[in-house]
Amino acid sequence: MSKNTSDADVAFISALAELLNKNDLTELSVKREYAEDDSLEVRVVKQSNVVTVAAAAPVAYASAPVAAPAAAPAAPEDPAQHPGAVTSPMVGTCYLAAEPGAAPFVTIGATVAEGQTVLIIEAMKTMNHIPAPRAGTVKRILVSDGTPVEYGAPLFIIE
């Protein structure tokens, strides 16, 4: 392969990476044929926080049975086990405000009514308003704006 082809390949791979970011993709795979015995296969993968969170979850669950005799102190520390926990009904990206720069839907100490929107979860380019399942006071906010969440992940503590 000549130097020009190598430069063209580098430009091609850079363009793929830019396309990946621009279109919010996580993986892109391309095979480029030059001649009968000359080709370039490129696989560009962007690791997201969702993958990291999913990989970290089994470790936490795997350690829970080992710590079973000491479950009493561990239960209050796990927000998902709190009786006032509001969990995610879906996988997606959570937003604490209607748009960037806007005031958040709720803050710590705020009183919420049942059915009041507490955050938005974007899933497949659809904005899903997540309502408070019960009335109460927001004691803890367990997610940050723009972070990915999984199904069942604790979002808030409302008492």
TrEMBL record:
The gene is accB. This is Biotin carboxyl carrier protein of acetyl-CoA carboxylase. PROSITE patterns: BIOTIN, BIOTINYL_LIPOYL. Transmembrane segments: none annotated. Pathway: Lipid metabolism; fatty acid biosynthesis. CDD domains: biotinyl_domain (cd06850). Keywords: Biotin, Fatty acid biosynthesis, Fatty acid metabolism, Lipid biosynthesis, Lipid metabolism. Residues 83-159 form the Lipoyl-binding domain. GO terms for biological process: fatty acid biosynthetic process. GO terms for cellular component: acetyl-CoA carboxylase complex. SUPFAM superfamilies: Single hybrid motif (SSF51230). Pfam families: Biotin_lipoyl. InterPro entries: AcCoA_biotinCC, Biotin_BS, Biotin_Carboxyl_Carrier/Decarb, Biotin_lipoyl, Single_hybrid_motif. It comes from the Bacteria. This protein is a component of the acetyl coenzyme A carboxylase complex; first, biotin carboxylase catalyzes the carboxylation of the carrier protein and then the transcarboxylase transfers the carboxyl group to form malonyl-CoA. GO terms for molecular function: acetyl-CoA carboxylase activity. The keyword Lipid biosynthesis applies.
